[in-house]
Amino acid sequence: MINLFEVTETNKMIEQENLDVRTITIGISLLDCMDHDIDVLCQNIYKKITSVAKDLVKTGEEIERKYGIPIVNKRISITPIGFVGANACKSPKDFVKIAKTLDQCAHELKVNFIGGYSAIVSKGMTNAEKMLIESIPEAMKVTQNVCSSVNVGSTKTGINMDAVKMLGKIIKDTAEITKEDDSIGCAKLVVLCNAPDDNPFMAGAFHGVSEANCIINVGVSGPGVVKNAINKCNGKDFGELCETIKKTAFKITRVGQLVAQEASKMLNIPFGIIDLSLAPTPAVGDSIADCLEGMGLVSVGAPGTTAALAILNDQVKKGGVMASSYVGGLSGAFIPVSEDQGMINAVERGALTLEKLEAMTCVCSVGLDMIAIPGKTSATTISGIIADEMAIGMINQKTTAVRIIPVAGKDVGDTVEFGGLLGYAPIMPVNNFDCSEFINRGGRIPAPIHSFKN
Question: Which residues make beta-bridge pairs with 407?
């Protein structure tokens, strides 16, 4: 049982160390909305989302007032539209119509994002899923609050290289079609391997087909809290450092558990999971990089960075699992470049490269996230970057992702401003040695031998 004392204990974390509940996300199944008529389908989607989530924002605000806990985002995740639109959609334009309906729901409900404009194509693509992927550039252009994701691989199925090749071009097209806004459409699109069904964080959130009709998932953050705890361990050995991080993660997760239970009760929607992911913001003192540097690195990117991140990720998971019986989603440490001032500083001083970031993704949650690259980068190079990251996820049986932004008209030395939680980013150099022959092979990379565990 969680009591008010546990929340009172975290007052300092909230007031001085940037602790927040990053998101309350309602997951909604749209399987019962399916229809052969696109207009009927859109009406069904609109009615279900606006009825189930009508009190989400109000509930979040009430919890904020009651406990003094900032809840930064109120979000919705839905069944992947690649499934939902399969019967009704005859062209990419039909899928864009659904995207507009989702955006209308987001605006009317005043939620920050709706995630689930998605396709799950790790083994192959249906015609509908192919059309959805083709529609992504236009959908990202004409909507503000819709997020898209494509799962192209898994440990069980291997990697769909036809989809990987296709998405290199889709990302380029999305960058070009939204170039007037610094290619921000790409910030709402993520490519995944081993995507979980219950992730509350954008842009990769969707409501998996294994989930209930609707569910409450809460994402908790708090890198500033963890950083301050790490700073108290100066001169201590790794055993004491790990114990401190674990205990801190426990306290953070208990705050999330309280918020999740309150939201579940007030909305009369079952509680799903707590996702304890240390997700940074551009605010000073709210940085994963600062946590790593607090362990003794002069800069993120220095030798030892991957080991430090492995420590942080593992202890966060251990503390979270002890604090809640239902820890899920991604749960660990995010390393989005544009959203983390410490990461930005490391890139600008030349300590952090794309290749080092890739190495770090072997031991943390997700992958290459919110990285701005030159707009001239080729589609096949982007596909090669995606393939590398998907391979890390497939072989290591973990979720990995790529949210990369080839900013149209910008090159290394420039910066791009996205605003809000998305922050700003220096344009990072990319290895441009050609990989097109490799990418153009197509087909599917088989699952690794250790996937066969039946």
Answer: 374
Give the whole-angstrom CA distance, residue 62 versus residue 65.
5
pLDDT of amino acid 18: 58
φ, ψ at 388 (rounded to 5°): -60, -45
C-alpha of 116 from chain center: 12
In 3D space, the residue among 22, 125, 89 whose CA is nearest the CA of residue 334 turns out to be 22
Distance separating alpha carbons of residues 97 and 418, to the nearest angstrom: 26
Of 31, 388, 337, 77, give the one whose Cα is nearest residue 204: 77
Q: How many CB atoms lie within 10 A of CB 310?
A: 15
Give the DSSP per-residue string, 239-283: HHHHHHHHHHHHHHHHHHHHHHHHHHHHHT--EEEEEEEE---SS
DSSP letters, 32-68, are GG--SSHHHHHHHHHHHHHHHTTTHHHHHHHHHHHH-
Tokens 């009317």 identify what position? Answer: 108
Question: Whole-angstrom Cα distance, residue 13 to residue 120?
Answer: 38
Please give the pLDDT value at position 26. 95
Distance CA 42, CA 227 (A): 46
CA gap 218, 71 in Å, rounded: 10
Other CB atoms within 10 Å distance of the CB of residue 380: 20
Mean pLDDT by 10 residues, the chain (454 residues): 53 57 90 95 97 93 84 91 95 97 96 95 95 97 96 96 97 95 93 91 89 90 83 90 90 83 90 83 76 93 94 88 79 83 90 93 87 95 96 93 94 87 88 94 90 64
Residue 83 CA to residue 113 CA, distance in Å, equals 20
Does the predicted TM-score (pTM) go above 0.70? Answer: yes
CA–CA gap between residue 403 and residue 386 (Å, rounded)? 9
Residues 6+ apart with CB under 8 A from 341: 280, 282, 283, 284, 286, 287, 289, 423
Q: What is the pLDDT of residue 1?
A: 46
What is the enclosing helix (H) or strand (E) of 113? strand 113-120
